[in-house]
Amino acid sequence: MAEVLFYERPVPLNRTAHKDLRIKPIPNLKFASTVHSVPLTGVEFPAAARDLPILFGGLTPEDAGPMALLGLRENENLFVNEAGQWEANTYIPAFVRRYPFVLAEKPVGQEGDDFTVFLDEAYEGFGLTEGDRLFKEDGAETELLANAVKFLGEFQQHVARTQWFMQQLRKHNLLEPRNIRLEKDGKSINLNGLFVVNEDKLRQLDEKTTHEFLREGVFGWIYAHLLSLSNIDRIGQRLGQREQVEVVEAASATKN
């Protein structure tokens, strides 16, 4: 499931089990270095569109969802370098920024809220001696944890809004398949299972739907998506630069 992408040992946050847990900032995002795409919410489209291709991934339009394309090869994020640093001055999706916490649905039949906070116990920033506490001595949340939970709640609201957005795209049959094919040095890369908004169908929307899309901000998200598609070529350039480095490193290793 995408929800637990790069979470190795997700467990429910527990005031008793985690009462002494501390967290310290880790100056890298290595955990995200092996994902070539991550889910994106609609509210992120305008900011993400400057740097990342925004596409809709899925087997069919019915199960497609928005995603930021981060790489062209399996298990490779072209925006994270060997040191785990994200490319400076480029957008980091909220899906990545919320780590090591995540809001997940509770099992069916379990009492309480529909969602509960999980954390990744494998996160290297967690410990019992260094960093800031998650809970105060009396068991109350610290400001750090409260802010993290607030961010998760806002993210979930954006997810719900994005799901409505996707319903509109499907309702008006606006998605069409898009195969990405890049040719380089006699080799080709093919990415399937992707969809984009069909501009011709967008222009044919009736007046009522057009007014609704304007009122709800749908057009802004759609055009951010369409403008972002030019970043696919930039992703290809990033891959080319990384391949050049790999060639140099391989040649150096052979000499040694």
Summarize this structure as a short list of keywords or feature phrases.
alpha+beta; 256 residues; five-stranded antiparallel beta sheet; 34% helix
How are the secondary structure elements laid out?
Layout: E1 10-12, E2 22-23, E3 37-39, H1 45-48, E4 54-57, E5 65-69, H2 94-97, E6 101-105, E7 115-120, E8 126-127, E9 132-133, H3 143-171, E10 175-177, E11 180-184, E12 187-191, E13 194-197, H4 199-203, H5 207-216, H6 218-228, H7 231-255
Antiparallel strand pairs: 1-7, 2-8, 2-9, 3-5, 4-5, 4-13, 6-7, 10-13, 11-12
Question: What does it look like?
Answer:
- The structure is a single chain.
- The protein has 256 residues and is α+β, with helices and mostly antiparallel strands.
- 34% of the residues lie in helices and 19% in strands.
- The longest helix has 29 residues, at 143-171.
- 25% of the residues are buried.
